[in-house]
Amino acid sequence: MKSRLRIIFPIGLFLALFLDGSLSNVFAGSLFKYPYSSVLHLVLMWIIFAVFLDDRDELPILAWSAFAGLVFDWFYTGVFGVYVVALPLIVYLCRQIKPWLDLNFLTLLMVYIINLTIVEAFVYTWYLMSKVITSNLADFAVYTLGPTIAVNLAIFVILYYPMRQLYLRVE
């Protein structure tokens, strides 16, 4: 019997893709107030939830994350390859640590913050090597990474229980 999660996951992923861009556009004045910039990562959150809450591990999350990364690069960054590599890398890392973790709110929160930091550092390094940006590491940490973690932490706290309930009900 196929899980309803196989249908809900891609719908939620595309909704998260849409909301990442739409909410960033709507709240651009607050999220990108010079010199600070906060990047929304709803797609990353949805993917991490999928890895940890799919008990049967039957979702093709790796393939979906690569596709979502391609769409994200195409529509939002204009630099191909960044999220196509970053999102599947996060899926791989999460699957490696999943057996070792006791799943609860704080654990998933810490996993999300660590993966958020990995993705942002990966994007920063990619852009630095590609000469897209020229900022130093301290500026990145203070003006981008810190605000990004703060905004996404608040969103995670708000969405944790509804998303968890959705996954548990669908499965």
Automatic annotation (TrEMBL):
<keyword id="KW-1003">Cell membrane</keyword>
<keyword id="KW-0472">Membrane</keyword>
<comment type="similarity">
    <text>Belongs to the MreD family.</text>
</comment>
<keyword id="KW-0812">Transmembrane</keyword>
<keyword id="KW-1133">Transmembrane helix</keyword>
<feature type="transmembrane region" description="Helical">
    <location>
        <begin position="105"/>
        <end position="128"/>
    </location>
</feature>
<feature type="transmembrane region" description="Helical">
    <location>
        <begin position="140"/>
        <end position="161"/>
    </location>
</feature>
<keyword id="KW-0133">Cell shape</keyword>
<protein>
    <submittedName>
        <fullName>Rod shape-determining protein MreD</fullName>
    </submittedName>
</protein>
<feature type="transmembrane region" description="Helical">
    <location>
        <begin position="74"/>
        <end position="93"/>
    </location>
</feature>
<feature type="transmembrane region" description="Helical">
    <location>
        <begin position="34"/>
        <end position="53"/>
    </location>
</feature>
<dbReference type="InterPro" id="IPR007227">
    <property type="entry name" value="Cell_shape_determining_MreD"/>
</dbReference>
<dbReference type="Pfam" id="PF04093">
    <property type="entry name" value="MreD"/>
</dbReference>
